Structures are given as C-alpha cells and as structure tokens.
Amino acid sequence: MALAGGVVYVPIVNAASRFSATSAAEAQPVFSKGTGELDAIDVNTGKMLWKSTLKAPDFGGATVAGDLVFTSTYTGQVLAFNRTSGQRVWSWQAPAGMNSPLTAVGNTLLIPVGLGSSPMLVALRVGATGTISTPTPAPPPATATTGLTLRISSPDQSANTTSFSTSTLTAPPGVRVTLIYTNNTPLPHNWHLFDGSSASVSTIAKTAIITGPHATTSVTFTTPSQPGNYYFQCDVHPFMNGFLVVKKP
Q: What is the rounded radius of gyration, in angstroms, for the C-alpha atoms of the chain?
C-alpha cells in the first residue's frame, strides 16, 4: 500500500483457495485465473474515492510519484493512474510476470521482473532509448548420484503456475534412490517425502529449501519396503504436492 495526501492506495488480489479443517492440500490458487484491483480510500472518512479493476492479481504494491500512483500485475503489466481521478494514464508490458513493488527514483522507474526464467531489474526513464536483453541462464550444476535417480522440478513461472513438474514419481520398494530437485522459480521451495498418504506422518526424506531460478539440490534415501502411495509436498507451499508410488517392477 501507499499513503499520500490523506489517501491510501490499496492493491487487491482476488485468487481464492480451498482449505479443509485439517489440510491445505487443495489450497492451490490459480493466479493466471485471478483478478486484481487498485483502490483509493480516504483515510479520514473511509470513503472509496475510486477503484480500478485489473485483469490479473496485483502483487505490485502501490508507489506514489508526484500526481501518479504506479502498480503492476502478476502477468507483468505496469500501470500508472492519476491519483485524483483514478484514470489510467500509462501502461507498459514487462517481459515476464511480477510479484513485488516497483520504485520511483527521480524520473526513473526501477521495475523488478521476477517471474520469468531469467529474473531481471528493468529501469524505465522518459526519453531513454535502451533495450532489454535476455540473459542466457547457466546450466544447473552436476550432482553426484547413487542407485536409482529420480528428478523433479518447479517450472519457471512464465505460465503463472506454482507447481511441481509432476505429481507422480515411481520407484521399486527397498531401493536406494537419489531425488534431484531443481527450482526454476524465484520463490523458495523444497521436496518433502512422508511415510504415508499425508503430511501427518513421519518423514522419509526432504531436501533443503532453495530459491531459484536454476537452483538444484538432492537427497538420497531408501524407498519403503511396503508398496503403496507416499505423499510428498513443498513445505513452503503445501499445495505443491503429489505421491511417490512404490511398486514392484
């Protein structure tokens, strides 16, 4: 939010989730289907002065500069509104999505573009003639493995999704497994395997929490001797989940 001249500017995220009394396993908001708003409220009266409806969730905060208020959406649209009337006076499409506020310094906007495969900081200035280059990401480091190797990742967020690359992994019972997890997002994630069908039971194995993109970690463990479906999740975002299916070849 931003406060200026007795008015508070409030970014809104409309992205519903479903929770049960005991689990957040279904609580996966689909941000690509969500919407947003930027609301202007008089702090003395609580009166809504104006509201602008946005096509995507507004994770971009609100930044006041002169007679304008700036914000940005999850899909990367950067917007400027007249503070008094709420009229949209300018917009720019970033090369990827955004989930953090921009900053105004003098006549320059500093815009964090963090939801693509190559996060970047973009500077926009009136009259500037530069171009935006896309860096080539370095390959993930090699990881030593033993026995059976399983791989899972979190895809980059260019499609505005927060999920594992698969919800099902398969391995035989009682074998040594190395799970290699790659996080291609700028958000913190990990992989955590439980000794049963939910997160309410003991842990079999888990990786460290890592922040990408292009970050890799691994964990080695022995699969359960009993065939069955064993639940895994990201501890930071439990709606990222699935099952390791242990079955005989």
A: 22
Which tokens hold the place of 173? 């019972």
By residue count, the chain amounts to 249
Strand partners, 215: 183
pLDDT confidence of residue 218: 95
Find out whether 241 and 233 touch, Cβ atoms under 8 Å.
Answer: yes
Q: How far apart are CA 16 and CA 14, in angstroms?
A: 6
Identify whether residues 117 and 160 lie together within a single domain.
no
For residue 48, the one-letter residue type is M
Decide: helix, strand or coil at residue 157: helix
Q: What is the CATH number of the domain that holds 160?
A: 2.60.40.420
Is 108 found in the same domain as 62?
yes
The DSSP annotation for 69-116 comes to: EEEE-TT-EEEEEETTT--EEEEEE-SS---S--EEETTEEEEEE-SS
Q: Which domain holds residue 203?
A: 148-246
Mean pLDDT of the 233-245 span? 93
> Which H, E and C letters describe 20-33, residue by residue?
CCCCCCCCCCCHHH
Q: How far apart are CA 175 and CA 221, in angstroms?
A: 8
For the ranges 118-127, 210-219, 229-238, the maximum mean pLDDT occurs at 229-238
Q: Which is more confidently placed, 169 or 99?
A: 169
Cβ-in-10-Å burial (0-12, 13-18, 19+) of 74 comes to buried
